[in-house]
């Protein structure tokens, strides 16, 4: 069926709950309201209050409660209303969920999913716009995923729910209502830990993920050069082989994300390429990122987020080398 | 300015509970002995033996830490034996413990072999945590239905609530006993755990070991209330308090709380006790923050000495049997340490295991560099 990303995510949740009675949903307003972005719409009515659980307003509580459920053998899918609020549950997520398999010598595991809408571009200020992926990928033990299309959103979320590891699922809220595409109604997963080539090309590798994918594809379309777009899909553990393979072919790397530049995921991608494929580069690596300010100001939301023009300039910059 | 006289109708009032005590310091039974759960003499003697073994183990752990054999900082248990013994005894074997640190007696009662505990203290093979944690962070004792604790305290109260929710969801007739110290009552985890358990009416008992100190900070600096059990009122659950160094009082309070929890009524139980030792081997209370006379005063209430006084007074154990109990514990603890010392070291390769359910390629590469 034709579906936008919000609908595709809803389909994934519904199908996984039908498939496995251990799957439960918890979070703020996920019940009767169906979540502030309506991702859990209709699930309370279908599966009832025991499986679609409105919790008190406490992110540490939501993540910690989900941890307990996972330790007992359930498959909780926790919703943090905005990624900006995950900090209130950072201890539970980073100190406990991520480390419990390790600190228990493999005697406990916490295969849960924490879904959180992330990213700027919807004029929502400092606390409804953050892109915290760099903090999260710096936490061994967590799998960090960011879908970019309705199709991979459904397949990745289903894979996350079935994973034996804790997954943070960063949903690009700017793409929730982006144009629909064909999303199969039958069961499929998009495997975790695998990047995909979103568009083939020979001259430049654009590495991106999540919310920035449509802009990268648009820039690739408009560029004079032949641009290959790598969609990471899983941010950690990262599929660097696909990145290296692409850069080895093109010799030019541009990394695009809307999170602040310093210490961002772009730095990690650049470092991996420098370590493993420096000889393949014919141009310096260019990062196109959000500026190092606290977050997108409401007045300058459109300036903050990397634009197609900025991406095109970066492509021109690396194409100046040959 | 006009002052409004807000009479009692417009104010909350919380009545502090009394602290339940059954055995006087000299071993005499109070009339509270008739209340609630009445354990048999045989049960008490069995628990006493675990308590003695735990204390002997605790003292040897301190010694072996000084000798450098216990690999990381050690947090002593002395003073907490009765609190552990009573609260764990009233659980069924299939119930779960969400621990905090000082829980040696609990481990004994759950059947964790002494060798396993020594293997953990020595960070050798045989440690369920694979040598990854401090001595008293019980990370991976799943086999004994002891959940996992790490140093940032508070989280165990929240996940205990989530775990209990899952038990009920799966229609399993099991409960969770969660533990925290007096300092822990200031954490987000404490409040959140109680709040969620109250809202969802979960089968959990929450214990607070009020041992008067969070490292150096006395309990009066954690909270303006004088009885920690009153905090339960804010979450719509029951709070009770008992002398945590009086095995009979702990058993009665814990049995009551567990019975309620099985009916989906969570309870907060404050057990008043004292930490006779330092916070850890990296701490020195006597020269820094605690008057030694204070510790001496609390020694009157020592959980093991009190039980021995009671046993002798009522003819349950003789002086000789008591002496024998200590000698046997000493021999058992030493033999277990000797055995565990011979266990193999933990191989380097284990460092990359259990980060994920599989070893990702980048971790394999990183291992090669070590």
From TrEMBL, chain A:
Residues in domain Transketolase-like pyrimidine-binding? 3-178
Q: Which UniProt keywords apply?
A: Oxidoreductase, Pyruvate, Thiamine pyrophosphate
Top enzyme class of this protein?
oxidoreductase
Give one Pfam family.
Transketolase_C
- One MF term in GO for this entry? pyruvate synthase activity
Q: Which organism is it from?
A: Pyrobaculum oguniense (strain DSM 13380 / JCM 10595 / TE7)
Any idea of its EC number?
Answer: 1.2.7.11
Cofactor(s) needed by this chain: thiamine diphosphate
Q: Which reaction does it catalyse?
A: a 2-oxocarboxylate + 2 oxidized [2Fe-2S]-[ferredoxin] + CoA = an acyl-CoA + 2 reduced [2Fe-2S]-[ferredoxin] + CO2 + H(+)
Quaternary structure note:
Heterodimer composed of an alpha and a beta subunit.
* Name of the protein this chain belongs to: 2-oxoacid oxidoreductase (ferredoxin)
TrEMBL record, chain B:
Query: What catalytic activity does the UniProt entry give for this protein?
Result: a 2-oxocarboxylate + 2 oxidized [2Fe-2S]-[ferredoxin] + CoA = an acyl-CoA + 2 reduced [2Fe-2S]-[ferredoxin] + CO2 + H(+)
Question: Its GO biological process terms?
Answer: branched-chain amino acid catabolic process
Q: Which domain of life is it from?
A: Archaea
User: How would you classify this enzyme at the top EC level?
Assistant: oxidoreductase
What does UniProt give as the signal peptide span? Answer: none
Instruction: Give the GO molecular function terms.
Output: 2-oxobutyrate synthase activity; oxidoreductase activity, acting on the aldehyde or oxo group of donors, disulfide as acceptor; pyruvate synthase activity
In this record, what's one Pfam family? E1_dh
Please name the InterPro entries in this protein's record. Answer: Alpha-ketoacid_DH_E1_comp, DH_E1, THDP-binding
- Show where the Dehydrogenase E1 component domain sits: 48-346
Keywords from the UniProt entry: Oxidoreductase, Pyruvate
**EC number, as in UniProt:** 1.2.7.11
Subunit architecture: Heterodimer composed of an alpha and a beta subunit.
Q: What is this protein called?
A: 2-oxoacid oxidoreductase (ferredoxin)
| Protein source organism | Pyrobaculum oguniense (strain DSM 13380 / JCM 10595 / TE7)
Source lineage: Archaea, Thermoproteota, Thermoprotei, Thermoproteales, Thermoproteaceae
